[in-house]
Amino acid sequence: MSNAASSAPVGEELAALRAAAATATRSLRQRIERLDDDSIDLILRGARSHYAWTDKPVDEALLRSLYDIVINGPTSMNSLPARFVFVRSEEGKARLGKALKPANLPKMMKAPVTAIIAHDLDFWQKLPFLFPHEDRRPHFEGKPEFTADTAFRNAALQGAYLIIAARALGLDTGPMSGFSNAIVDEEFFAGTSLRSNFLCNLGYADETALFQKLPRFAFDDICSFA
C-alpha cells in the first residue's frame, strides 16, 4: 500500500469524518431547499454570453472568491485537472491575441479578464493528496490516451463551473473558442504538461451589444427515457 493510502483516515476517525459530512449536508438542505427563480435566471435561464464590455474592473479578490467556489465542483476521483490563467495585463493580452481569430480579438482585448481554462496531463500525480483513500495513480501511469481523456473531460466540467460561479458572483461571462490552442499552449504552457481547452471573458457587460437569444431545443426534441 502506498504512503498516500496508508495515511488516509480509517476506523473511528473515518467514521467521525463521514458523520460530519452527512450532518453538514443535512444542514445545508434544511437551510436551502432550492435556488429561487431569480437566482436560476441569473446563472443560466436568463443569462447571456457577452461580447462587449464596460470599463469596470474585476479585482483580484473577486477572482480568488470565484476560484474558491469553482474548486468545490465535483470531478472524477477529485482529480481537479483544470488549471486557470487569468489574463489581465496588456502584455498577457498581447500574447493571447496572437492565438485569436480576428473577429474574436476585440472581444478579448476589451474584457477586463480573460480566463484560459486548461488541463494538466500530469494531474494524476497529485492524486495521493486529492484522493488519499487509495493509490489511483496506476490507473493513469503509462496510459496517455486515458489520462488525456480524463483530464480534458473533467477540466471542461470545471470550466462550466467557472461560468456558473462567475454569474452567481455578479460577473458576466463570454466563453470563446475561435482561437488556436497550439498558439496558446506555446505562449503560456511551453515545456509544461498543461494544455488549453477554451477561453472565457469575465467582466461587466455592455448589454447594448446583445442580439436576441437564440432558440433552444424542447425537452422532447433531445431527451428520452430508458
Describe the structure.
By secondary structure, the protein is of the alpha+beta class. The protein has two domains: 8-46, no CATH class; 50-209, NADH Oxidase, CATH 3.40.109.10. It has helices at residues 3-6, 11-31, 37-45, 60-70, 90-97, 105-110, 127-130, 144-168, 181-188, 219-222; strands at 82-87, 113-120, 172-176, 194-203. A four-stranded antiparallel beta sheet has the order 1-2-4-3, sandwiched between helices. α4 crosses α8 (144-168). The longest helix is centred in the last third of the chain and has 25 residues, at 144-168. The chain is globular and about 60 Å long. The termini are far apart. The mean pLDDT is 95.
Question: Could you list some keywords that capture this structure?
Answer:
226 residues; alpha+beta; NADH Oxidase; 2 domains; 4-stranded antiparallel β-sheet; 44% helix
